[in-house]
Amino acid sequence: MKTYRNGLCNILSSGILLLTTLLSVSASASPWQFEITPYLWALNMDGQVGVGPVTANVNETFSDLFRHLNFAAMVYGSAHKDDFGLYGSALYAALSDSGTVGPHSGISVKAYEDYGIFGAGASYIVAKHEYSNLSRIIVEPYAGARFTLVNTRLKVANLSTARDNQHWTDPVIGLNLKYEINKQWSIRLMGDVGGTSTNRQYSYSATGLIGYTPVSFWTNTTTSLGYHYLKQRYMSGSGFNSFYWNMNLFGPVIAISIRF
Length: 260
Known about the structure:
Elements: H1 2-25, E1 33-41, E2 44-51, E3 54-60, H2 62-68, E4 71-81, E5 84-101, E6 107-124, E7 127-130, E8 136-156, E9 160-180, E10 185-195, E11 201-212, E12 221-236, E13 243-259
Antiparallel strand pairs: 1-4, 1-13, 2-3, 2-13, 4-5, 5-6, 6-8, 7-8, 8-9, 9-10, 10-11, 11-12, 12-13
């Protein structure tokens, strides 16, 4: 636990240092613009998780997970100065699941997971095209890192327990494409790929959102509905010291963005 906390602290401290440096050395007169977005991801999970010789199949809908959910928090934040941007995100959930192993699926396995994804990076608007009807398209590539922690406990047939705490960091590159239809409606498409290996450690994600911004009240807020998909694969160790995480995470998203 101390190890992944140190990894997370390194990412957060690096992001704070980068932001502080940019704020202090920037000579531009344009002010920074900030946006904070708490959101709810109705998460579904489909895949496998293994510790040592024990692997459990996971196939849970959001309603299944919600019944076993102990805690969850999700938030995204960004800051822009002219075309340059910084972003940070955090997702944490404590949950449990059950499955079976063996040739005839006769041995029950219970899996307990503390799962977190923390990201940080920078972006730059490379294209911005405005149309006569007040609509515009913004193209914004980004690059950063995605830190994942998985604390796993597998209980086999109520007899033995396997434990493992894992964490890894994926460098990521992605693209944020926003189409502002008018002052009220917008469409946002985002996607990225990451990892260090095409076999043992990789990830990719895709998000689509439709946003609505009121024009007469709460004009600094946007409510968005959409869908998010994340694929993660990570393997480490071997034999009894091995860890295996091969998961599809997907579901609808609702978010409220506040600009200041």
